[in-house]
Amino acid sequence: ITAEKLPKTGWEQGNSVVGGGSPFVFSSKRSECEHELRGKVVWVTGASSGIGEELSYQLAKLGALLAISARREDELQRVKKKCLQISSLSDNDILVLRLDLTDRSSHEAATNSVLKHFGKIDVLVNNGGRSQRSLFVDTNLDVYNAIIELNYLGTISLTKYVLNHMIQRKKGKIVTVSSVMGIMGAPLATGYCASKHALQGFFNSLRTELTDYPEISIIQICPGPVQSQIIQNVFTENLAKSIENSGDQSHKMPTDRCARLTLVSVANDVKEAWISDHPYLAVCYLWQYAPTWAWWLMNRMGKRRIQNFKSGIDADASYSRKRK
Ligand SMILES: NC(=O)c1ccc[n+]([C@@H]2O[C@H](COP(=O)([O-])OP(=O)(O)OC[C@H]3O[C@@H](n4cnc5c(N)ncnc54)[C@H](OP(=O)(O)O)[C@@H]3O)[C@@H](O)[C@H]2O)c1
């Protein structure tokens, strides 16, 4: 699906593309295809900020019934309140469910709570996660453990319980917000890239185990840089340290654009969607089809990334045009 075929939302550069990780260009069933999500029960993790928050608003407007999860319940209540203001949903249509993805012992009970409330789960959006800004040589191994616990093990643990339910119903969609970092490698994010590569490998394999369930879709969303609280929340060299200055994020793709393209991908069962502005999107294609060039280019871009980070601006700031 090329973004150009979609109705324009907000500002539009026309260069963000939902691709399939293949030379084929998918055509969308209908430009308004996300409306297929009306009345569906959608469970969004990481809904208290950023991409998950925006997905919740757009899903609410589309008339999906929502379970919204994260650790900060007060933030989830704020998101629920806004969802109710902007949609025709009623209080009972949105379940706020506190969930810590790293507390795997709570995932079965959480899944049962959603099922008790709505009777079914049509779509799970595995969105909760944290990134990283630190060099490997400076980083404590505990940080790597925590990233894998959250981004990888937390995600597959929740998936396990929800998938059991979808297998009983013989239908459903498991959507995972991976990253372009699940396709390429980049400095300052060795642990984060590893966790997203792990998710890519896991879900690509899981899909091949579900061939008897053609109505269960495994969908991976790979965004490039998107405006959110991801930098404020990054892992650094040690678990106790947070980032001092998250820097200007205005050069990144607006959250609503990423959420919109995500929902179009979900409605169309796109197996792998790359949602990014250039140059990251071009680098993804290089990484996939001409890795030797990608390694050469990444060595140069990577140096800039580290310099930017060390000088206190966003690591990717100097590659992107500033949004007007
Ligand atoms: N923004 C980007 O540039 C970008 C690019 C590619 C991929 N992504 C991916 O997009 C997803 C959403 O990130 P975002 O950009 O929207 O960042 P964000 O604004 O920081 O949102 C992250 C969400 O994850 C939740 N979360 C963090 N730790 C959690 C835990 N232990 N248990 C449950 N929830 C937890 C946070 O909620 P609480 O703190 O309340 O728990 C928050 O709702 C992530 O998987 C990220 O890797 C982002």
Automatic annotation (TrEMBL):
PROSITE patterns referenced in this protein's UniProt entry, alphabetically: ADH_SHORT (PS00061)
Highest taxon in the source lineage: Eukaryota
Signal peptide interval: none
GO molecular function, one term: oxidoreductase activity
Keywords: Oxidoreductase
Pfam families on file: adh_short (PF00106)
Family the entry assigns: Belongs to the short-chain dehydrogenases/reductases (SDR) family.
Protein name: Dehydrogenase/reductase 7
Species per Swiss-Prot/TrEMBL record: Zonotrichia albicollis
